[in-house]
Every structure is written in C-alpha cells, then in structure tokens.
C-alpha cells in the first residue's frame, strides 16, 4: 500500500534536516495534541498557556526569523512544520502563525531595536503571547477602511477603536494594533505595541464558534488607550506593513491546510480498508477507489506546489501573487478533500471519533481568513490582466 508521499516521491525533494524537522513536529503533536484535541474541540477551549511554552521549546515560534532567540530556519522547514501542526488541528497552526508570522514578524521587521530586545525573546519561548489586531467588525477584506484611530496628545499616543476575530486576543500579553494615525496633517496606518494590561484595553473571548473551536478568538475594545511615543513601530507606515505580515502568515497556510487534508485522507483510507459493506471492504468498491485517487492527486499536486513555493521563498524570489495562488489552491482543495472523506466515512464521519469533520469545520475558517478565496482569485486576476477588480 502506497502513501500519497510515496506516489509523488515528495520525500526525495526534502533535505535530511527538513525531514528531521517535519518528523520532530509530528512527534510533538502525537504526544501533546492528538490525545486531547477532540476533547478540546468539543469543549471549545485550548490550553494556550500550557502549550505555548512547549512550542517554544520545540523551536517553532518565529522559527523563520533570525536572532533574538529565534531559530532562523529556512522557509520550507517552517512550511513543513506548519503542515504537521495543522495535521493535528488548524487551531494549533493558527496559534503558531499568529505568534510567529504576525505578531513576531511585525516586531522583527518594523520594530526598534529596543522593542525587538524586549519582546522577541519572550515570544519565541512562549512565555509571552502576542496577537495581531488588524481586522475590524466592518472591515475584513478591506482593511484600508479601518476605523481605529490614533492621535497625538503631548508626547503620548491615544488609541480608540475595536478589532474582531483576533486569535489569542484574550490571552495575549502584547497586541500589535494597527490604527490610522493623524500626523503632520496626514492619516497613515501605523502599528502600535499595546501591552494588554494597559488601561482602556479590553479583550472578550468570542464564544459560539462552529469552526476553530480549539483556538482562542477574541474581540478587542480600545477605549482611550494611552501609550508612550515609543510604542509605535517605527518601520511601518501605510497598509504595506500589516499586509506584508499577512503574506508571511499565508505562506504557512499553503503547507498547513494540506496537513489537515492529508490527515483526513490517511484516516479515510485506513477506514475504507477495515469497514465492511455488503461483505467486502469499502475500499474494494470502484466508487471509493475513484474518490481516493482523485483526492490523492489533488493533495500530491498541492504538496508539490507548496514545496516549489517554499524553494522560491528560500531564494528570496517568492511574490505575493504566488503566495495567493498557493493559499487559494491549498485551502480550496483541502476543504474539498475533507468533505469528500466525510462521505466515505458515512455517519461515523460526523463524530469526533474521527478527525475528518473537525478538520472540515476548521477549514471553513482557513478558506476565508488571511484573505478569502474570492480575494485571492482577484489578486490572481489582476496579475493576469493588469486590471484591478477590487474597486
């Protein structure tokens, strides 16, 4: 019996170090996540404070960043780690993405040396947690319309506004908050480092989710939050700052979503071989084999694309449009695989005894966050036609 990796010989495309990193992360999820993830998902909770330091010891928090206690590993290695994290649960990969590719990347790329020294080593170990406040209740795909404002008051900044769908928002120690800042008669998007114990900052955990249930999501209220002048990220001015961080996070999704799809498919293949229907294994039916073959084909193609994009990123050649292509393909094909797998498992597929519908529910969020499928279609459309359809 061949696996998808064997059919496509993808291991032959990896270095020994890359395989070791992948296998180490997989072993971590086997010990720390898989035995409990169904229970956490059902309860709608995740022990972030307990798991984050373990992720820090594993070295995956900001693992693609250089210095300040970060591992400084290649992009492809980070992608392979994301694949294993999301094979366990999308919420786990989201935690790592938000910590490393959003909060830590913002500080690493745009922060002052003092800000980097203060926050990055603590975030890399998981002793401190970060969140990334960009999305607002009325502005998701169009962050340029944000209403959160920052004004100068003497030597201080004063922030007002709200953010929504913020992963780790209610457990974070530091929030990277993006706001329109009024300076020199201009209104420019700037990033601010907001300690979450600052007066006027409130985070409320969002309940009632049917997706990413094993993940902490919050709404942030920012009411006359007063910050010193050095709270601003000096290297970021305009939307290009937060959008470049989103591109980093999307890269992890390219690999991560395929991890969820792989877990669904491997579970389903094993199930089909042991499940008897009309006195023979479900795997013996042509319809079942056709479904499995089609899913394996899309998963294999997605993994080959992900590896190609990883190599481009390691060479410094990856473009945002290529990231959009990868994110669109991986998220769209992963959710299609999860849904098809559910049909093979039948009624068993809707239970938490199997990971398939848990992955499918999570992938509903992955399909739309960090840019909806439609937004990435339009990004590719503009690249192909040189005509923007956004406005």
UniProtKB/TrEMBL annotation:
Q: Which residues form the Acyl-CoA dehydrogenase/oxidase N-terminal domain?
A: 16-126
Please tell me whether the keyword Oxidoreductase is annotated for this protein: yes
Q: Name one Pfam family in it.
A: Acyl-CoA_dh_1
Q: Which cofactor does it need?
A: FAD
Acyl-CoA dehydrogenase/oxidase C-terminal domain: which residues? 238-384
Give all residue intervals belonging to the Acyl-CoA oxidase/dehydrogenase middle domain.
131-225
Identify a single GO molecular function assigned to this protein: glutaryl-CoA dehydrogenase activity
Query: Which controlled-vocabulary keywords does the entry list?
Result: FAD, Flavoprotein, Oxidoreductase, Transit peptide
One example of a Gene Ontology biological process annotation:
fatty acid beta-oxidation using acyl-CoA dehydrogenase
InterPro entries recorded: Acyl-CoA_Oxase/DH_mid-dom, Acyl-CoA_Oxase/DH_mid-dom_sf, AcylCo_DH-like_C, AcylCo_DH/oxidase_C, AcylCoA_DH/ox_N, AcylCoA_DH/ox_N_sf, AcylCoA_DH/oxidase_NM_dom_sf, Glutaryl-CoA_DH_mitochondrial
- Keyword hit for Transit peptide: yes
Tell me what reaction this enzyme catalyses. a 2,3-saturated acyl-CoA + A = a 2,3-dehydroacyl-CoA + AH2
Q: Which family does it belong to?
A: Belongs to the acyl-CoA dehydrogenase family.
Q: What is this protein called?
A: Glutaryl-CoA dehydrogenase
Taxonomy of the source species:
Bacteria, Bacillati, Actinomycetota, Actinomycetes, Mycobacteriales
